[in-house]
Write a structure and sequence with these properties.
single chain; 1 helix; eight-stranded antiparallel beta barrel; alpha+beta
Length: 229
């Protein structure tokens, strides 16, 4: 083998060794990244327990009749109440920034119309929810989800009732270590048949003989704190 051939052979060997070294380094780096991603996902898979408090808004619609003839007019009003509750569940992350929270929660809502159409309105809600979570940063994220609920309702003047409901949830979360602070908007979608009220106030020159009341689904705004463990 002449000098030129030996030089070419040597350079090819060096290039081959460097290529093998780079491939090995790349594989080690990829394994390290993959391992970190797995660790990141698994470290976020935790149980949660928390409390929340806030306000709710609900609309009441009345229809008045005099001898089977509806009395014209706009008889709708919105009332503001308070609500609070407890929750417990589990976070499962299928990607480092993407996860699902499955949780039960109990919510108590209190309204007072301050008149004799409804009076006080107390609702107990038990729900199972599933929220998709996306972590924009390590300690800040957003979520949106749905749930199924059962409501037990006690009123002062319209009697007691119950209803199944769907729940739509959305909000923001901010975490400090194992404590998570949350802002949530919740819409409980349920339907209650019109209720007959004995409250028959005079309306202009009309004296109602029948009063039907429709209660719309409330929207709630909550702030809360959760512990992850």
């Amino acid at each position: 083998m002449d000098y030129f051939s030996r030089v070419v052979f040597f350079k090819l060997n060096v290039v081959g060794l460097l290529s093998c070294l780079l491939v090995n380094i790349s594989m080690i780096h990829a394994d390290d990244i993959s391992s970190k991603k797995v660790d990141s996902k698994e470290s976020k898979n935790k149980f949660i327990a928390g409390i929340y408090v806030g306000g709710s808004v609900m609309q009441i619609s009345s229809n008045y009749y005099s001898n089977l003839i509806e009395i014209p007019g706009d008889f709708e009003k919105s009332i503001i109440g308070v609500s609070y509750g407890l929750k417990a569940g589990y976070d499962w992350y299928f990607l480092p920034k993407h996860g699902v929270r499955i949780y039960f929660d109990y919510m108590n809502s209190y309204f007072n119309s301050k008149e004799r159409t409804l009076g006080t309105y107390v609702m107990h809600t038990i729900a199972l929810n599933a929220d998709y979570r996306f972590d924009i940063f390590d300690n800040f994220g957003v979520f949106a989800g749905v749930g199924g609920a059962f409501n037990i309702i006690n009123t002062q003047y319209l009697g007691n009732m119950s209803a199944f409901a769907g729940s739509i949830n959305g909000g923001l979360v901010y975490s400090i270590s194992f404590v998570e602070f949350e802002f949530r908007i919740r819409y409980l979608a349920y339907e209650i048949p019109e209720k007959s009220s004995n409250y028959l106030p005079p309306i202009d020159s009309h004296q109602p003989t029948r009063h039907l009341v429709e209660l719309d689904s409330p929207i709630s705004f909550h702030v809360g704190a959760n512990i992850k463990f």
